Amino acid sequence: MPAYPDDRSAEITAALGALPTGTPVSEVARRLMDLFTTGDLEPGTRLPPERQLASTLGVGRSAVREALAALEILGILDVRPGSGTYLRGTASELLPQTLRWGLLIGRKNTGELLELRSGLEIYVARLAAGRAEESDLRALSESLDRMRSGVGDLKAFARADLEFHNALAAAAGNDTLVDLLHVVRSLLQVYADRAVHDEAEALTAIDEHAVVFGAIEAGDEDAAASAMATHMGTASERLAAEAAR
């Protein structure tokens, strides 16, 4: 059996504090995640019992139970019947899951997500222009070729498009930035998969990606950011239109 950190129930309950009366399950989950991502708790730390958490937060045990179950589904907690509930990973490991959960339980504003994605993609392109290695350039070139060959198959085109952006993110060399971008993309993916409707739109997207690639290949950070800003403008318009359907 693996060794687990010493019991820190008293410390955890003191850090949580009571929630306002009538707080929904999502707010219980938020309070727990705020605590988990401080970096003060080690992986494998056992949480206080449901009864103790409910008393501390000032909510019913059912609200705590539902919040813990949701966090288990996201891979943040490990609930073991007869043993307890344990924290799965470190704060940095939990970041992608907690970001996704926080966005999902909040008011999902597609316009704000599109603005966030645009800003992240533009910065990624700038970083990639200064950091891309030969292997990154090959991956980008191959994705661009697959986009060209997929014009007649829009599903294949969409996959190649995503591959291009993933390769660009990898070239940027910033894992935290990539995690955040992945979360935002995943929330928009339901629209992104259907955003390109015909060959003309696909060809426009290919031309825009080619300009981005050319700037990355030349190591021109300003040109890469500018080219991505242009692409994000047209891509965001298509995504917004699809979301409004």
Give an overview in words.
The chain is about 70% helix and about 5% strand. The chain has helices at about 10-15, 25-35, 50-55, 60-75, 90-105, 110-130, 135-150, 155-170, 175-190, 200-220, 220-245; strands at about 75-80, 85. A two-stranded antiparallel ribbon has the order 1-2. Strand 1 (about 75-80) and strand 2 (about 85) form a beta hairpin. Helix 6 (about 110-130) packs across helix 8, helix 6 (about 110-130) crosses helix 9 and helix 8 (about 155-170) runs antiparallel to helix 9 (about 175-190). The longest helix has 23 residues, at about 220-245. The chain is elongated, with a radius of gyration of 22 Å. The mean pLDDT is about 80.
How many beta-strand segments? 2
Shape summary: elongated
User: Largest beta sheet: what is the strand line-up?
Assistant: 1-2
**Low-confidence parts, pLDDT < 50 over ≥5 residues?**
none
Chain-averaged pLDDT: 82
Order of helices and strands: HHHHEEHHHHHHH
Structural class based on helices, strands and sheet pairing: mainly alpha
Given the structure, what is the number of helices?
11
Helix content class:
over 70%
Beta-strand residue fraction: under 5%
Q: How many strands, which pairing sense, and closed or not: the largest β-sheet?
A: 2 strands, antiparallel
Report the span from N to C terminus.
53 Å
Cα Rg: 22 Å
